[in-house]
Amino acid sequence: MSALKEKIVRLIRAQGPITVAQYMQIALGDPFHGYYIARDPFGRDFVTAPEVSQIFGELVGLFFVQAWEDRGQPKSFHFVELGPGRGTLMADMMRAAAKVRPEFARAAKIVLIETSPMLRSIQKQALEAYAPAWALRLEEIADDRPFYVVANEFFDALPVRQFVRGEKGWHERMIGADGDALAFTLTPDTQPVSFPTQDAGLGAVREINRNAEAMTEEIGAKIAGRNGIGLIIDYGYGEAGFGDTFQAVKENAYADPLKEPGDADLTAHVDFSALKAAAGLSAVRVSGPITQREFLHRLGIAIRADRLKSSVPDKSAEIDAAVERLTGETQMGKLFKAMGLSAPDTTPLPGF
Ligand code: SAH
């Protein structure tokens, strides 16, 4: 048994079953053995959009340049990325932006919100030229410069709680220990829930991500108050519903989420309707969510791909395959959504 699994089993023996959110938190974020703390999972376990093709980051970079111009080209702004992974998205955004508007690149003060020391050091290498700063929490970004923020595949990594409809009401789904094995169980008692329950049949599962909601609320308030811009891209659903999306991925395949904590990525789909509601608590304007396919097409992915193909003709097939991966309905095009945030009464965001 791995050291982390042993730690979790010991914790459960000592204090009883833990919530799915607590389990995710430990498996991903344990300071010694957590999945994101201990390794660089990119390529081995999964591939994110910026790692599929530079076109993704370039288009997102041009999205920010356009929105910055529409807001009168402020001379200095915070450019915050949540969970930057290898730093590829930020590097591609900044390269594309600097090519068309060097002033944008000079005005951007990059802040990376990242928990993993290993990924921080990879980000440091990738982004050396732009002298980024790191932070653990948004509150650390305190002055009132315009606040621009981007997050790709960040919210899916935040811990979710799950509630299951039983005969008498809702139970929270928990993780207990059966000998050395981890196993799902339910709280014995039912508990009050705050979501609409009318369409829920027996066994229905509802996922609640309070961390994601709280963070979106905080971002929304900063964007509304500081003429900001936000872009959240992730896999998820636009309408709240019932379903179990808690999943583990290892080596590009689905895995048992309870088998090897710390050795597989754990995620849940993002409930964009909940993020939208959380953002709505401040005056921020929400655009979308729309599908990644729609978003990238409106930003001109077809033109950008053609241009890239004419400069590197021998890469044509590769570029077509990347565009298909990013926008194809059965690939990342439909499951992934983009949601924009901006201050009220400002020029609408490009792409939405
Ligand atoms: N945006 C990148 C990486 C996505 S993976 C890309 O598209 O390739 C998720 C990222 O979020 C990783 O960098 C991970 O270390 C970071 N992360 C996960 N939970 C976090 C948290 N609570 N606070 C800050 N960073 C977190």
Write the layout of secondary structure elements.
Blueprint: H1 3-15, E1 18-19, H2 20-29, H3 35-38, H4 49-52, H5 54-70, E2 77-82, H6 88-100, H7 102-107, E3 108-113, H8 117-126, E4 133-135, E5 147-152, E6 161-165, E7 170-178, E8 181-186, E9 205-208, H9 210-225, E10 229-237, E11 247-250, E12 253-255, E13 265-267, E14 270-271, H10 272-279, E15 285-291, H11 292-298, H12 301-311, H13 316-327, H14 332-335, E16 336-342
Parallel strand pairs: 2-3, 2-5, 3-4, 5-10, 10-14
Antiparallel strand pairs: 1-7, 6-7, 6-9, 7-8, 10-16, 11-12, 11-13, 15-16
The structure holds S-adenosyl-L-homocysteine (SAH).
S-adenosyl-L-homocysteine (SAH) is lined by residues 36, 48, 50-51, 83-85, 89, 113-116, 119, 152-154, 157.
Word description of this protein:
The structure is a single chain. The protein has 352 residues and is of the alpha/beta class. Helix content is 38%, strand content 23%. It has 14 helices and 16 strands. The longest helix is centred in the first third of the chain and has 17 residues, at 54-70.
* Distinct ligands: S-adenosyl-L-homocysteine
The radius of gyration is 21 Å
- The separation of the N and C termini measures 48 Å
Shape: globular
> How many β-strand runs?
16
What is the count of DSSP helices, taking H or I runs of 4+ residues? 14
What sequence of helices (H) and strands (E) makes up the elements? HEHHHHEHHEHEEEEEEHEEEEEHEHHHHE
Poorly predicted ranges (pLDDT <50, ≥5 residues)?
Answer: none
Helical percent range?
25-40%
